[in-house]
């Protein structure tokens, strides 16, 4: 991909979205809303008319398709008709697993003419079938990461990522991750101010970094059934720098430490200590990615106490220290 800086946006970017039966509707409409919203935002900001996106949809024969949720989408035309797109976007859904040779051939023929190739969710399976991910890093919905790796060993699958960018190819995880990736592309093309305007309009975060895991600590663990334990889970998330020892958390839940530890594990599937560790690690990663705070300040804000304690947690879980993690993140997002 060729990064574009604010004020140097590429003109007239044509986005073509591939439609097929049993496509996931949100994989289509999420990115479409982002790109369309960016065009409106650019116009409202007084940008030149050429700084925006033309979004088109196309199916194999130009006929309507039925999504996996039962909605009917009417495409603008047939694949192969019209100008070559700047961005070719392949969404996911049950239809990607049919391995329709006509659809795969159409994507394979279109891809070399596009400057940017994007997939959402299991759209990566179609790209892989077309041989377009060979030798590249890629991700997909967490349920299909193993399948992608097994069926296409030539693809370097990073199944825990929200999205992965490798050259002119970008792949994202399931459903809402397509919005994250689309916002990242808008920020690259038109600048942070336009991307932020779109994110605010859609009431989503401007950027969940691609390196973020598909599951947060709250999603990876089960939600406790009993209200006191659910309140403790929320407290941990909101107060990572507090005393989060078993005894302190048990007191908050109004249980004995032994009873609390047993109940927490039984209802969430993990121990209190492991849950706390993951929450603190996630919080530290976000601060390293999104703030200019130093490692010492971040270690205190996340409850590690010392930079060395945070460094050990990073090395143990991510294989690298905090400073190197920040450097890699900034290098990746600057591409």
TrEMBL record:
Highest taxon of source = Bacteria
Q: Does Nucleus show up as a keyword for this record?
A: no
Residues in domain HTH araC/xylS-type?
230-328
Q: Name one Pfam family in it.
A: DJ-1_PfpI
Q: PROSITE patterns given for it?
A: HTH_ARAC_FAMILY_2
Sorted keywords for this record are: Transcription, Transcription regulation
Concerning PANTHER family, the annotation shows: ARAC-FAMILY TRANSCRIPTIONAL REGULATOR (PTHR43130), HTH-TYPE TRANSCRIPTIONAL REGULATOR RV1931C (PTHR43130:SF3)
Q: What is this protein called?
A: GlxA family transcriptional regulator
């Amino acid at each position: 991909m060729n990064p574009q800086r604010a004020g140097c946006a590429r003109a007239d970017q044509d986005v073509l979205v591939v439609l097929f039966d049993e496509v996931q509707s949100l994989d289509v409409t999420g990115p479409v809303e982002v790109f369309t919203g960016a065009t409106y935002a650019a116009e409202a900001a007084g940008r030149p008319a050429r700084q925006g996106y033309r979004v088109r949809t196309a199916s194999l024969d130009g006929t309507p398709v039925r999504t996996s949720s039962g909605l009917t989408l009417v495409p603008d035309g047939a694949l192969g008709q019209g100008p070559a797109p700047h961005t070719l976007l392949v969404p996911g859904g049950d239809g990607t697993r049919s391995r329709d040779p006509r659809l795969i051939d159409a994507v394979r023929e279109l891809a070399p003419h596009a400057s940017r190739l994007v997939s959402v969710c299991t759209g990566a399976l179609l790209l892989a079938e077309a041989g377009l991910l060979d030798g590249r890093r890629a991700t997909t919905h967490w349920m299909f990461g193993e399948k992608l790796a097994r069926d296409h060993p030539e693809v370097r699958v990073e199944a825990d990522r929200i999205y992965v960018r490798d050259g002119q190819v970008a792949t994202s995880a399931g459903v809402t991750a397509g919005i994250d990736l689309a916002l990242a592309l808008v920020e690259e093309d038109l600048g942070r101010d336009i991307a932020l305007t779109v994110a605010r309009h859609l009431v989503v975060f401007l950027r969940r970094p691609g390196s973020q895991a598909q599951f947060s600590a709250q999603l990876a663990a089960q939600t406790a059934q009993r209200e006191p334990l659910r309140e403790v889970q929320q407290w941990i998330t909101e107060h990572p720098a507090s005393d989060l020892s078993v005894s302190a958390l048990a007191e908050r839940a109004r249980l004995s430490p032994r009873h609390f530890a047993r109940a927490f594990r039984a209802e969430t599937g993990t121990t209190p200590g492991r849950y706390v560790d993951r929450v603190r690690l996630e919080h530290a990663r976000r601060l390293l990615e999104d703030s200019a705070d130093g490692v010492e300040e971040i270690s205190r804000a996340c409850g590690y106490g010392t930079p060395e304690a945070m460094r050990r947690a990073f090395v143990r879980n991510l294989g690298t220290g905090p400073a190197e993690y920040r450097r890699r993140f900034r290098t990746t997002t600057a591409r």
